[in-house]
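Reproducibility note. Readers wishing to regenerate the assembly model reported in the main text can use the exact inputs given here. Chain order matters: entities are listed in the order in which they were concatenated for prediction.
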Amino acid sequence: DIQMTQSPSTLSASVGDRVTITCRASQSISSWLAWYQQKPGKAPKLLIYKASSLESGVPSRFSGSGSGTEFTLTISSLQPDDFATYYCQQYNNWTFGQGTKVEIK
Amino acid sequence: EVQLVESGGGLVQPGGSLRLSCAASGFTFSSYDMHWVRQATGKGLEWVSAIGTAGDTYYPGSVKGRFTISRENAKNSLYLQMNSLRAGDTAVYYCARVKRFWSGPHYYYGMDVWGQGTTVTVSS
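Running the prediction on these inputs yields the following structure tokens for the assembly.
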């Protein structure tokens, strides 16, 4: 099975910071990757599909890149609403990464 | 409004069974692949099962042989039959719709609509 590893597990940042989260796959998954945002007590929200395509309605400060085994989610200027946990997911066997919590510095 | 509403969660003893339901509204249910995803308290997301529009089903090793996903398109409903439950199955269970994005020559996917979740607790 393909394993997904995110780093870091926790990230402390301030409003306005540029934030980058990395997701690595144990084998190549081409661009078969999605990113989600989850806030406490809420269901996840789809941000990015196909590694770099922005879901409709998602702010343009979110961007994704990568292919093969290494992927990144970038928030260009962190906003108060962005403090949350972020997950990558590959859709070969639908495995999620372990999550990255973005917290206030 | 596009919506998914889960029900059927509760407290069950180890070895017991439970059936979760997910009621869909606001979209053509039969046209979408559907999934179940769970999350234990304080933990990450774990994919549990999937069912395609043709009724094909998929499971990870952790639940294969114990869980059964099914759908009833006439009732716009998704189900998860969970048998031989273990303490490790304790979690919030979400149903999710999978949206397909065409980018020739492939489809790409994302879980674009989620329910609010239903809590399953396996304990004696």
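We highlight two features of this model. Chain A has a mean pLDDT of 96. The first strand of chain A starts at residue 4 and ends at 7.
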